[in-house]
Amino acid sequence: MNPRKILVTAALPYANGPIHLGHLVEYIQTDIWARFQRLRGHEVLFVCADDTHGTAIMLRAQKEGRSEEEVIAESSEAHQRDFAGFGVSFDNYGSTHSEENRKLCGEIWQTIRDAGLVKSKEIEQLFDAEKGTFLADRFVTGTCPKCGKTDQAGDNCECGHTYAPVELIDPISALSGTKPEVRNANHLFIELEQLREFLTDWTQNGDSLQPEVANYIKGQFLGDDLRDWDISRPAQYFGFEIPDSPGDYWYVWFDAPIGYMASTQQWCEKNGQKLDDWWKNPDCEVHHFIGKDIIYFHTLFWPGMLKTAGYNLPTKVRIHGFLTVDGEKMSKRKGTFVKAETYLKHLDPAALRYFYASKLGPRLDDIDLNLEEFQAKVDTDLVNKVVNLASRCAKFLKPTGLSAQWPDDGGLFKQAADSADEIAQAYEDCDYNKAMRLILAAADRANPFIENAAPWVLKKEEDKAQELQDVCTVAINLFRQLAIFLAPVLPDLAEKTGELLGDPITSWDQAQTPLLGTPINKFKHMMKRIDPKDIAKMTEETKADQDAEASAGAMSELAAKYNDSPQHLIDKPLTEECTFDDFIKVDLRVARVLQASHVEGADKLLQLTLGLGGDEQRNVFAGIKSAYDPADLEGRLVVMVANLKPRKMRFGMSEGMVCAAGGPEATEIYLLDPDNGAQPGQRVT
RNA sequence: GGGGCUGUAGCUCAGUUGGUUAGAGCAGGAAACUCAUAAUUUCUUUGCCGGGGGUUCGAGUCCCUCCAGCCCUACCA
Q1: Rounded to whole angstroms, what are the CA distances from A321 to A215, A251, A288, A345, A363?
Q2: What value of ipTM does the predicted structure carry?
Q3: What residues have CB less than 8 Å from A447, skipping those under 6 apart?
Q4: Which of A346, A359, A434, A452 could cross-link with A367 by S-S, CB 3.0 to 4.6 Å?
């Protein structure tokens, strides 16, 4: 078989939230496919990236008083940690906010311009003057123009009517709570209709799409003129500015898929290869794995862009359904909106990989994670049937190793070896549930074999030593075949099997030849059963997270009432976390200003004599001259750091500090003031 | 309203181009065994293949229609 050159992508997760079990359907599905192709000896490049642009990231950065770059860096790190935890084997993980991407966007954009596909149109849109940004539909609420219901979304109402946000009565910006104004702005559009002939042919006549997807495209889009695609957004927008249209930015869905190429480019630079060897090479296959929510972008816009720019078209767009948990949409309240991170704290990633594999087919059906079924399936299939094969026979072989000659096995090994092609085809077609069924059928043939051969009986009869070794040699090799077939799904199991037998699993074809005459290592547990308590802990933790988030959400609603500016936190970000022990070292005390006076020759200082009760006093120089008159200070209470190491200053020893809030301006100094009743000397904690 | 998809044992699903009495795993019932993470093996119960009509010697499989469910989308087919 000639090695194929295969580029694999999984959809880019948005840099605005954690990876959860729903995301993982796709990344596990894609990873299994990529690992399968590698195992078959093909040249595979599996790339992904964080999707970083758009309004949502911009708003979040503003809200948190950080730069967009900080937000996306943090997110990328978390995403990659989660993916690694589930064994997702990306060759490169990039970001759409990269120089490689900016450059590729520019190049592709130019070809689209040159092809005459871009036009400019003025559209009316709501503008939030306070935030200085145009408002996407989902950021506007208002009164429905048809039925008069208040508090409806920007583009449709509960009553079933749809409208443009500018038609709303009393629109309100969800960003600032202010009333947005209608403004005109020029947007750039790609005239997709010009590509109709190509898109019709590509979606309907090729085999790049699943049949139901081709039908969907036909029914949903091709029946009418393809609408112009609004590809630009006016400032402010977090993204790439369009080089030949200053002040406009590419809409996030323009640069996101190009991120696949940018990530490839990064990998190429690290590995001395060329982008065009992957993206302009007719011998290279491109496989995109996506969810059914983004069909539109990957089957119309993206092929249109690639075609125009002269790059490879997707060989296949492989589309999967969504995840439900216990038959319902994932819900934070019910504890089923489980984050990848939370899962990993309690359960084995291999269990989820296997469960998803056993559920995934080539079609777009949603898959359900029924938690009882999950436990039963993993326990029965993997631990009881597969791993148990090794567990029950390995120790009989420890003294002798594997037989040198292949004994009579009733044709079992060959039968499994012969099923390799059918299993491989199922993997190739993303029909993993079929692959798992075929593999488990082989396990169901192996267990009766052992039962009939009864090695535990043979062991008791001295003259049956050879037979014992032979029977277990068969059993272990049947097990090894299963581990090879399961390797794309369970890389850890494959690795442990390699260790047990002193022969690493690296190729699909290893399932064709039994291992003979080699020693065997001590058997170690390879997988353990799922403890239902761990599942319960996982959902409990998810619920607790949700409660914490809900109260945080309620708090920020409260904060919104006061409209406090985030600017101070932006200017002076919070410092590193400290422990209680760190904090308690600082001895804060209530103190009375006994005397306050100007310091001759000092521009900013006042000299204070602070009383801590009785005769205990401190002499403190405080830089508060710009905001306070000494006469106003005498007699009042302040909070001071009472155990600060004395410091010699130009005008004398300073034996502490008074606490004050301060802004950027010299006059913005506000001494802390204990409430009535506090007495000098009392500790502040 | 339009479009896409699904409906097979209690549960999760297979059923290839229409062909002999409709399958698997799990769950349920009975027994055997003890090497193994109480795992395994053998036997066993269960189906108006959503309803109705049609094509055919023959339909779960093709056609029509109705019903139910999921998803997408909107006054445009």
Answers
A1: 16, 26, 14, 26, 8
A2: 0.90
A3: A385, A388, A389
A4: A359
Nearest residue: Cα versus C1' of B76: A224
Please state the domain extents for chain A. 347-512, 580-671
- Residue A347 phi, psi (nearest 5): -135, 165
Distance A47 CA to B56 C1' (A): 53
Contact between A262 and A96 under an 8 Å Cβ cutoff? The reply is yes
SS (H, E, C) A236-287: CCCCCECCCCCCEEECHHHHHHHHHHHHHHHHHHHHCCCHHHHHCCCCEEEE
Nearest Cα residue to A27 out of A392, A267, A356, A251: A356
- Give the number of other Cβ atoms within 10 Å of residue A600's Cβ: 7
Cα separation, A420 vs A416, in Å, equals: 7
Angstrom distances, CA of residue A513 to CA of A217, A421, A484, A619? 46, 15, 12, 88
Task: Supply the pTM of this predicted model.
Answer: 0.81
Where is A113: in which H helix or E strand? helix A99-114
Nucleotide nearest to A361 (CA to C1'): B13
Strand nucleotide closest to residue A217 (CA to C1') = B4
Q: Tell me which amino acid residue A144 is.
A: C
How would CATH label the architecture of A580-671? Beta Barrel (2.40)
Distance CA A447 to C1' B38 in A: 16
Nearest nt to the A524 alpha carbon by C1': B37
Length A383 CA → B30 C1' (Å): 25
Checking each nucleotide's C1' against the CA of A460, the nearest proves to be B35
Report the nucleotide nearest the CA of residue A445, measured to C1'.
Answer: B41
Within 13 Å of residue A440, how many CA atoms lie on the same side as its CB? 18
The CATH class given to the A347-512 domain equals mainly alpha
Q: What is the mean pLDDT of each run of 10 residues along chain A (685 residues)?
A: 92 92 94 97 97 89 90 96 97 96 97 94 84 77 72 65 73 80 88 91 87 83 85 90 94 94 97 97 95 88 94 93 83 83 95 94 87 91 95 92 93 93 92 92 93 92 91 96 97 96 96 95 93 91 84 65 65 62 75 85 82 83 84 85 76 79 75 83 83
Distance A328 CA to B68 C1' (A): 18
Scanning the structure block, which residue is given the tokens 């359960």? A347
3-state secondary structure of A189: strand
Count the Cβ atoms, other than its own, within 10 Å of residue A416: 26
Residue A193: count other Cβ atoms within 10 Å of its Cβ: 13
B chain positions with any atom within 7 Å of a protein CB: 2-6, 11-15, 24-27, 33-37, 39-42, 70-77
Question: CA–C1' distance A598–B28 (Å)?
Answer: 92
